[in-house]
Amino acid sequence: MRLYIITLFSLVLVVGCTDSNRFNSVEIIKNHNGYQLLLDGNSFYIKGAVAWNKFDLVKQYGGNAVRTSWRRLDMAAENGLGCLVNLPVRAERDGMNYDDSVRVQKQFNRIISLVDSLKTHPAVLMWALGNELDWIPPGVPYNQKVWGHLNDLAVRIHHIDPHHPVLTTIGSVHEKVIREFILGAPEMDLLGVNEYGDILKLAGRLREFGWTKPYVLTEWGPTGFWQVPKTEWGVPIEETSTEKADAYRERYEKAILQDKEMCLGSFVFLWNQHQERTHTWFGMFDAQWRETEAVDVMRKMWTGGWPENRAPRLDSISIDSKPALSNIYLKTGQQCTAEVFAHDTESDPLTFNWEVLREGSLFPYGGRGEERPPAMPDLIADPSASKIKMFAPAQSGSFRLFVYVYDDHFHFATANIPFYVR
Known about the structure:
This protein has two domains: about 5-305, Glycosidases (TIM Barrel, Alpha-Beta Barrel); about 315-420, Immunoglobulin-like. Helices cover about 20% and strands about 25% of the residues.
């Protein structure tokens, strides 16, 4: 078993220290209990978030690592966090051609140059070579030469930097991908897995398909829009923020923490606000950094205790007493009633806001470049009430009614309900 010495801050070191001689010793070992990550001989379990901002909150709320760009290493170091460093290995969905030896060599040189320049940075924890290189929407077969390229990179990185483990991430766990990855990239130290609604099946599938090394959950969170029920007109029905929070807790306790043999920890998704299918689907915050219940859950999972003040819980949302699964159709201009039921654990006063957005039409991979649809004006008479009168838009098509429930401690809950105007 290779010994890894990584450049992660000890809590006794001065934050901001860049002395390359003051590294901590980290090992990936295998004993009778399974794999472990050791920091100075003590167990180090990754409690991380996928993040590109608010690293101070990750640290304050009990986290110890972030998965982020190499450009944010200084920010991670300033907050005493280890970093799973995303390295820009390009995917075929972005135009990379793994049959083009010139382009492959150019990418190889760039990655090795980055690693060589960053390997002594005090926040580096592990190297992540690309993201979901096995996925080409809408499911086009990938070029298997990608695994050989990753293997070549891993060999070279181990040579120039034997102190940091190397992984790549895959999108969910499929037998064909796992078996081809095992054969094509044997020098990879561990595996990163991005998994959402099927996370409870993850540990069993990895073993069934032949994976024997450790792994890290490099993304996990709410049920994905590709995994939830859809309306009759084909749009996904989003869980409420409360349903998501309950899922975060169940998945952390029953999937991540339960696999003590092979799982070295995880990076929760997403420590930000993010537009992907909707502006509320994956983000654990809103654009003003108000916190959802999912943040409360991660504080509980990371520290063992709930925060003193918690986000509101959203019990249900309806249009004319019908939930989203009822397939709600309205006529143009039709008046209807919408209502949300929510409560606050500490009985904090709650305020409300509603808006109607047209359903988006372009959904690029990972939401990159996806824009939030504009709100439809003048459809709700009093958007500050928990029960509202709403007029259906004058245009036909697919829409969503969003509600936001705020307490007075910078928390919020949210839900939306799709409807179709005809």
